[in-house]
Known about the structure:
Keywords: Membrane, Transmembrane, Transmembrane helix. By secondary structure, the protein is mainly alpha-helical.
Amino acid sequence: MGGFLVFIGSMIAFISVIAFLVGIGRLIFISENKQLSLKIILFSVIAFVIGFGTCAANFTLGNMH
């Protein structure tokens, strides 16, 4: 079960980095709706913290009992 949670946490962290870059790109290049871009950036940072925390809490090196 720990391996599954590490995988899910790392996927959430990876997707949040992509969303962060999309939010920054929208903020810089598409300046129509800055509030939506800021929401995307905020939610991606929150998702990264959740994903990284889940991954780090369930990650183990080797066979540590």
